[in-house]
Amino acid sequence: MVANVGSVVERARAEAVPVVWVQHSSDNLAQGSEQWKIVPELSRDSGAPLVEKRYPASFEETTLESDLAVGRLVVVDAQTDECVRSTLHGALGRGYDATLVSDAAPRVRPKGSHSGRAVARWPRPRR
Fold it and tell me: Which of 36, 51, 55, 124 is 20 to 30 Å from 24 at the Cα level?
């Protein structure tokens, strides 16, 4: 799964598409802990935005919307389906064209792991 997320991120980079990373923390997932850290297989560019969140929805009380300058999102996740569903519902409710990469979004969180989420921004399709 993590390799699929990495492939989507690499494709976005190859096409000069900005990637916004979202990282969750909570009472059960403390910032700075080993479980909280993005796995080494995924690398965030130093200039890429990092949105820190405490709720399943990535738009809830975060800077995500201000970090997005386009209307189309491609969502991948290497942790949970709850966060994916909440983020997709939030994106659609705000009028974004959102796509979930199904083989880069697990249904079950691998035990003891956390790798972060990447939201790639492609230009809005022309109509």
Answer: 124
Quick one: which of 114, 111, 103 has its CA closest to 35? 114
Q: Give the type of residue at 29.
A: L
Each of the 127 residues of the chain gets a pLDDT tens digit; together they read 788 888 889 999 999 988 999 999 999 889 999 988 888 999 899 899 999 999 999 999 999 999 987 788 888 876 667 888 888 889 999 999 988 887 676 554 444 444 445 555 444 444 3
For residue 78, which of 22, 119, 116 has the smallest C-alpha distance? 116
Dihedral angle over CA of 38, 44, 47, 49, nearest 10: -60
Whole-angstrom distance, CA of residue 84 vs CA of residue 100: 8
**Structure pTM?**
0.77
String of DSSP letters for 33-83: STTTSPPTTS---TTS-EEEESSSSTTTTSSHHHH--SSEEEEEESS-HHH
3 state DSSP class of 121: strand
